[in-house]
Amino acid sequence: MTLSLEEVEKIAELARLELSQEEKERYRGQLSAILDYAARLQALDTAEIPPTSTVLSSYTVLRQDEPRVGLAQEDLFRNAPQIEKMQFRVPPILE
User: Fold this and answer.
1) N or C: which end of the chain has fewer CB within 10 A?
2) 3-class SS at 83?
3) What long-range pairs does 24-30 form, CB within 8 A, spacing at least 24?
4) How far apart are CA 27 and CA 1, in angstroms?
5) Alpha helices in 1-95 (DSSP H)
6) C-beta of residue 1 within 8 angstroms of C-beta of residue 39
7) Does residue 4 lie in a domain region?
8) Can you give the residue range of the structural domain that contains 15?
9) Number of domains observed in the structure of the chain
10) Measured between alpha carbons, how far is 7 from 24 in angstroms, rounded to an integer?
11) What's the pLDDT tens digit per position in 55-85?
12) End-to-end CA, the chain
């Protein structure tokens, strides 16, 4: 699936990225290759593979949980579309 330049621009807008024309062309090729690969994976017959099948080991290696310094508020809110009283402002979701 080959993406159009307009689709790449829309994706960049949603991700709040400013891309040059050269970057748009490069990402268009890269994203198209990813979508082509995903389409190839969709074509595989997985009917005989159980849903819980995995190639990973059955145990998890956990790291020690250590506290560390988080982001500064300026960095945290830098890409937020709306901020109000030092909080993220989001539209209400009502049914």
Assistant:
1) C
2) strand
3) 28/2, 28/3, 28/4
4) 14
5) 5-14, 21-42, 73-77
6) yes
7) yes
8) 1-46+75-90
9) 1
10) 10
11) 777 777 788 889 999 889 889 898 899 999 9
12) 36
Instruction: Give the global pTM.
Output: 0.49
Q: Is 62 inside a domain boundary?
A: no
CA distance 18 to 24: 10
Q: Is the pLDDT of residue 54 over 80?
A: no
d(CA 1, CA 29): 10
Return left, alpha or beta for 86; rule: phi > 0 is left, psi -120 to 50 is alpha, else beta. Answer: left
Amino acid letter for position 5: L
Flag whether 52 is in a domain.
Answer: no
CATH of the domain at 7: 1.10.20.60
Examine residue 19 and state whether it is found in any structural domain, yes or no. Answer: yes
pLDDT attached to residue 52? 78
Tokens of 2: 């080959």
Bridge partners, 84 (sequence order):
87
Judged by DSSP in three states, 56 sits in coil
Residue range 27-46: average pLDDT? 94
